[in-house]
Amino acid sequence: MNLQDQDGRSFPYLRLSVTNVCNFSCTYCLPDGYQKTGLEKSELCVDEIRRLVTAFAGMGTHKVRLTGGEPTVRKDLMEIANAVANIDGINKLAITTNGYKLNTKAQQLYNSGIRAINVSVDSLSPEKFKQITKHNRFDEVIKGIDKCLEIGFESVKINVVLMKDFNDIEFEQFMLLSKMKQVSVRFIELMRTGDNIDFFDKHHISTEILIGKLLSNGWVQKLRSKEAGPATEYVHPEYKGRIGFIAPYSKDFCKSCNRLRVTSHGELQLCLFGDGRYDLRPLLQHDNQIQELQNTIQNLLNYKKSHHFLHNNNFGITNNLASIGG
Q: Where are the domains of the chain?
């Protein structure tokens, strides 16, 4: 069985949220911090996650990214990672993190089987970093990135949510960072969600301006691999690292979609900005349910749309990116 939708797109990449909880309060995502509602469902346990990923692996998925919220707040994260890394067919395990205590956790993450790491750093100014995250941890996060490079992670990426009049003016500093370190700096176009309408209107800016700056300075576009994420990356012979852009408002962005998402409660979300989630948890209770689970996932792909509707100000059910991992 090979996962494929009605538009012929295949899905070798699973983004698996392991928690909705985040310990940062980023202005564009959770400006008031994570708030309990009293209606929270329990998060998937290690065995449920193992069965879920086993089913996906049997349908051609070979890359898994653990996301949140902030995945490192889960006390059993290393156990989760180790279970996923040892599933037949999974050849790349990645994680996205805010870098909290990464300097002390990097070796554990690597030992658990994680080989690719994305760290959110929305400004190279400690003051602006604190302004956006509400935490004075810039130096700690940078030390964590250096630790990952020292350990030998196969891929170290820095995620930057691009914001007009805030960090767009730091483009040259981020370029310098990629010149000095073997990292991929990825600028993510600010996306409209249910909770950030005013912030979006004030700070959204297209990545096209920055791409033009790169091209005029000798950068060239890098060929995108089949299992890669949504970023378009650029390289330069004089730079150790790369610069990438994730531009969901760009033409034909969804044509190359190769990833599916599952929430920390076991709900399949076919699109980051889709209007529905499908509960898989009842099929994660026993090892003998794998075939039924696979059939269900394949059938649900019939509901995946050919593209999102962000251009129509329709962001689906995604109120904030912490709820599904971005």
A: 13-149+219-228+251-323
Q: Say what the pTM is.
A: 0.91
Q: What is the mean pLDDT of residues 286-307?
A: 91
d(CA 91, CA 291): 21
Q: Look at residue 320 and tell me whether its pLDDT is greater than 70.
A: no
- CATH number for the domain running over 13-149+219-228+251-323: 3.20.20.70
